[in-house]
């Protein structure tokens, strides 16, 4: 696996490799300004454009492409994984990234099940569809279990005070209310959302397949997050959206087994979202309350400005509760 960029990009790699030290020793600002200088801004924008991504740290940068196995012959478990590029947060940062990697890994059978299910609908194969729905349910349950490893590897205070700052972006961020100037690219500040789990393809694809409909406010945010995904990932979601309707198929066939399996998938997805709410409550809401109780303290300003906002810029708890409740609304009534 390639871990270094070509020599032309050495200034970037030097800063990336020294990032924790530069920040902790207060030397970063001497190397990087709040106006992103043209020698960084222009190549960043050009590389991002070629990748089809916005010029900011996104989920695919931080998680999907930022891990490597210590021993390729051994299973992909957290003890056998390392992150490639780091920033302050120490072992908690490593845990946060790698647990998220393992969440994505747990979703793989579910994503494969979507493909199997769409083909089963097109071929009118009820047995294959039932099998795919059962596999999807198990995958969603495995995602929930894997997410629980956050408690073992990530310290809430470090996540709140340190890690979150580097995922906050410069859109809907009170600490950077007008955005960031990309010198040589735009004379006006540009606004981009920070890295967020909402930039993962997984739940978007599950929602589209299961026919979960969110409120306008939540749906607008989620659709905006699709612009922060690799183009092929976004295209996959759109392919699921434009494919055959699972709900219509189940209702038209009146197959009780299929309806039960569908509802079990929806319930598993709602349970995952409920569990995510408990994790966010611990790592954001309770951590924020504890941080307020410690003031005055050493926390950087942005942590206090952001308070209880998600890294993507949302009022996080109201958003998460809304998407969970709308998931539950997708449950189909059992016919008598």
UniProtKB/TrEMBL annotation:
Region of interest called Disordered, as start-end residue ranges on this chain: 293-312
Pfam families given in the database record: IDO
Binding site for heme b: 276
EC number in record: 1.13.11.-
Enzyme class: oxidoreductase
GO terms for MF: heme binding; indoleamine 2,3-dioxygenase activity; L-tryptophan 2,3-dioxygenase activity; metal ion binding
Keywords: Dioxygenase, Heme, Immunity, Iron, Metal-binding, Oxidoreductase, Tryptophan catabolism
Gene Ontology CC annotation, any one: cytoplasm
GO annotation, biological process: 'de novo' NAD+ biosynthetic process from L-tryptophan; immune system process; L-tryptophan catabolic process to kynurenine
InterPro entries: Indolamine_dOase, Trp/Indoleamine_2_3_dOase-like
Chain ranges passing through the membrane: none
Catalysed reactions, as listed in the record: L-tryptophan + O2 = N-formyl-L-kynurenine
Family statement: Belongs to the indoleamine 2,3-dioxygenase family.
Functional description taken from the UniProt entry: Catalyzes the first and rate limiting step of the catabolism of tryptophan along the kynurenine pathway. Involved in immune regulation.
Protein name: Indoleamine 2,3-dioxygenase 2
Species whose genome carries this gene: Ursus maritimus (Polar bear)
